[in-house]
Design a protein that fits this description.
This protein has 20 helices and 34 strands. It is an alpha+beta fold. The longest helix is centred in the middle third of the chain and has 46 residues, at 256-301. The chain is elongated, with a radius of gyration of 46 Å.
Length: 833
């Protein structure tokens, strides 16, 4: 109960009021001695109520007396001091606290004069918690602002450490972040280098703090305060990124209020860590995308398999942490896989062991090529299907192996020409961005490998033909050809070359009837030759067949001249065309292979689309112009963007033939890389323009391209952008209309610009159509020279059934034109499911 030295008549009431008061209450006399004090104030001073009676302020509060006594004397002088802020030692909490104090003079009336001040009433309110909460809130806001500007995890750790030291008195902080590639915990000492006073703590507590960070990061659960260490998981959207730990000197107590505040601090640090890690990931993706443009340029100029392989290996080695990389290609007979090139780090013994792999071998490379499937060997059990290489995998500590097939034609249905492989040291794990980079690189390599295979086949064919011509020339010069003399019915003389050609040791007596050694079907050719001999005495060289002695035909080239008419006598030079016919057949097969490879390059421009979203359906169509083989510069593609939207591209490269197709394939691959990396629609045309300008040669100074881009959300919102390309069309119940997208400059024109996009909203039942200009360049009718144009195309779309498909549009445009279309035409049609 409170103590009162001299009580008024209402003593019990006064005692009850002092006990119930929500504030600390004290009354001083004029000598600054305690007259009355309640339990609340006594508890703050750390003394019983009775221990205050008759004692001065300086005796009870020797430290605080220096600034309390002047305030009390001002009150004794008659001044009321309201809401004076003082710092007083709070004994039961063992800390200085902030208090708000009211000093009021206590007066007593005098018989014949003014009231006399006989003491001071002081009311004290402890506002330490409120002040500390406000101070911490301000500090937390400042921390969040500082963290929003950092660019590295070292900076995040430094700010978190200095914040803990300044705001919480922590002596040591440790930030731990989980590595997305190895699942290791990367620790960052958040505190500054310890001074002499911190040396002992740094040496004894750092290991304990780092251990707590690892425990929390692995479990994702908050670590209850152990001794003087507290650790909290860094969690963003349910994902644990790491942990944050603070340590204090021995004896420090962390209360519940501190823990609540530290959880809020950990949440702010987690956001900063997520942003820094995401920025670093985006920077790597952007760097790889830029590097891929250089790789695409190298691959586009590669003329041999070794050059393609060298470019791919160099890219993997430079842009990833792979310790080995290499390329395999199918052998000529298709029964083996030959290593073209690999990184210098490959062990020589393993290089010899795996230089040539049978296509049916139990190896990752052969498996990937046989099934045209990508392999990621990231766990020990992934090696079990490949016993042929399991021993080497165990010896290397089960490294991560990536094998990506190099496909001919469509990625979903094409066959493999070979494979790109990369070897990463354990415990590295391939992130999604690593896998996508290798897949994109392999796509570029596939087109280049197809082109190089075709070029090498052409080179071999030309060399074979040149060699054949040289041999024939040498034989003619040396007389190494058949020579005969004949009458109008029989061969009467023949040199050894001709006898060997026909399979005879010598001519039979009376000669060899040349009509008997000519198979059926050549009668008209022989009759024409005889007519020439009778009228002109000589024939133009002509081909026919003779029958060998064994009955097999031999193709020959004859040149005949008469040297006597009576009796009829002629001499002929006979050349065996067997090898020539074989070479011609080989050449036809090589041309057919070239045409097939060319179609494969073109098919890379129009892949079978994989749609990962169930809220949209996509239909596509392509029609080659002028009945050409499918080898033009039109292309299209769709893929998912990191923000959840579906990205779409359609484009048209000037010209036709392999160069246009290769450039179209390169632009499509570059677009896909940029889209997957999260590039905005406005940034993509500039990068594609730089790539196109860098790749074109002096002979291609007019090489240009147009592209139309779109990004569709599940709610129907669509963003469109055009770089010299026809605008996208929205098909609604009211009719077809063009989206008013601002036109950007054509790619390759050298016009610096930042294109602007347009955004519109598809309503239920609406569809979005992108197309190339080959559609609107068609004639509006077979009997007119007028072009269909945009108005005619919109009218055509309105006249079709509302559920038309792309092939229906192309059929109708072709029908109106009356002939094969003058230019390639491509369509992409999207509809919300």
């Amino acid at each position: 109960m409170p103590y009162v030295r001299t009580l008024p008549s209402d003593a019990e009431l006064l005692r009850a009021a002092l006990a119930a008061a929500p504030l600390g209450v004290v009354v001083f006399d004029r000598d600054l001695r305690y007259v009355a004090v309640n339990e609340r104030l006594a508890e703050a001073n750390g003394l019983p109520v009775t221990a205050h009676a008759g004692h001065t302020v300086r005796e009870v509060l020797p430290v605080e007396a220096d600034y309390l006594e002047p305030l009390l004397r001002r009150a004794l002088a008659g001044e009321s001091l309201r809401e004076t802020w003082v710092d007083i030692w709070i004994a039961h909490r063992h800390e200085y606290g902030s208090s708000r104090v009211w000093f009021t003079p206590v007066s007593s009336p005098t018989p014949d004069g003014p009231d006399e001040v006989i003491g001071v009433l002081a009311l004290l309110e402890d506002v330490t918690t409120e002040v500390r909460t406000a101070t911490r809130a301000d500090s937390a806001r400042a921390l969040a602002e500082d963290l929003s500007r950092v660019t590295s995890l070292d900076d995040v750790a430094r700010l978190a450490g200095s914040f803990g030291k300044a705001t919480l008195g922590a002596a040591l902080g440790v930030l731990g972040v989980l590595d997305e590639h190895t699942d290791d915990l990367l620790t960052y000492p958040a505190s500054e280098e310890p001074g002499s006073a911190e040396a002992e703590l740094a040496s004894t507590a750092r290991s304990e703090a780092e251990a707590s960070v690892r425990t929390v990061a692995r479990s994702g659960r908050e670590l209850d305060t152990v001794g003087s260490v507290a650790a909290f998981p860094l969690r963003v959207e349910g994902r644990v990124l790491g942990a944050l730990s603070y340590s204090w000197e021995a004896g420090h107590q962390v209360d519940e209020e501190d823990l609540v505040f530290l959880r809020a601090v950990a949440a702010r640090v987690a956001v900063a860590v997520e942003r820094v890690v995401s920025n670093e990931r985006e920077a790597r993706a952007a760097s790889r995308a830029e590097a891929l443009l250089d790789v695409a340029t190298k691959l586009n100029t590669a003329t041999s398999l070794s050059q393609v392989s060298a470019a791919l290996v160099e890219a993997v080695s430079a842009l990833t942490v792979a310790v080995e990389a290499g390329v395999y290609a199918l052998s000529g007979d298709g029964q083996g896989l030959e290593r073209l090139d690999d990184s210098p780090a490959v062990d020589p013994e393993r290089r010899v062991k795996y230089d040539l792999l049978p296509t049916d071998s139990a190896t990752p490379v052969a498996h990937a090529v046989r099934g045209a499937t990508t392999l990621w060997l990231q766990e020990r059990e992934d090696w079990e299907p490949f016993p042929m290489v399991a021993a080497d995998g165990a010896a290397m500590g089960w490294p991560v192996i990536a094998v990506v097939p190099l496909l001919r034609g469509d990625p979903d249905s094409g066959t493999a020409l070979g494979a790109l492989y990369a070897h990463y040291p354990p415990p590295y794990r391939l992130a999604v961005e690593d896998q996508q980079f290798l897949i994109t690189l392999a796509a570029l390599g596939s087109a280049a490998l197809s082109r190089a295979t075709l070029m090498e086949a052409e080179k071999r064919a030309i060399e074979a033909l040149d060699l054949s011509e040289l041999r024939m020339s040498r034989l003619a010069e040396a007389g190494a050809c058949g020579v005969l003399e004949a009458t109008d019915t029989h061969i009467v003389k023949a040199n050894g070359f001709l006898l060997d050609m026909l399979g005879y040791d010598e001519l039979p007596p009376g000669g060899l009837d040349w009509r008997a050694v000519t198979p059926p079907g050549w009668e008209e050719v022989d009759a024409a030759a005889m007519e020439d001999l009778r009228t002109r005495g000589v024939t133009e060289p002509f081909t026919k067949e003779y029958l060998r002695a064994d009955g097999t035909p031999v193709p020959v080239l004859l040149s005949v001249a008469t040297y006597r008419t009576d009796p009829f006598s002629a001499v002929a030079v006979v050349i065996d065309l067997t090898k020539q016919r074989q070479l011609e057949a080989d050449h036809r097969r090589q041309v057919a292979e070239r045409e097939r490879l060319t179609r494969a390059v073109q098919s890379a421009l129009f892949p079978v689309l994989r749609i990962e979203h169930d809220w949209v359906s996509v239909d596509v169509g392509y029609r080659a112009g002028d009945s050409r083989m499918a080898l033009g510069g039109d292309f299209y593609d769709v893929c998912s963007r990191p923000d959840g939207r579906l990205g779409v591209v359609i484009g048209d490269v000037t010209g036709h033939g392999p160069d246009a197709a290769a450039n179209g394939a390169a632009l499509r691959a570059a677009w896909r890389t940029l889209t997957i990396s999260g590039a905005s629609l406005a940034d993509i045309p500039g990068t594609l323009d730089q790539m196109l300008t860098a790749e074109r040669s002096a002979e291609e100074d007019q090489l240009m391209a147009t592209v139309g881009l779109a990004a569709l959300s599940a709610d129907g919102t669509v963003e469109t952008l055009t770089a010299g390309h026809p605008r996208a069309i929205v098909l609604t119940a009211a009719g077809a209309r063009e989206i008013e997208t601002p036109y950007g400059p054509i790619l390759g024109a050298g016009i610096p610009s930042t294109p602007r996009s347009a955004t519109t909203r598809l309503q239920p039942g609406d569809r979005l159509l992108l197309y190339t200009d080959g559609v609107i360049e068609a004639r509006a009718g077979a009997s007119t020279r007028d072009r269909l144009g945009l108005p005619g195309f919109l009218a055509l779309l309105d006249a079709l059934p509302s559920d038309f498909a792309c092939h229906t549009v192309l059929d109708e445009v072709t029908r109106l034109h009356g002939d094969p279309l003058p230019d390639d035409a491509a369509l992409v049609l999207l509809e919300l499911s």
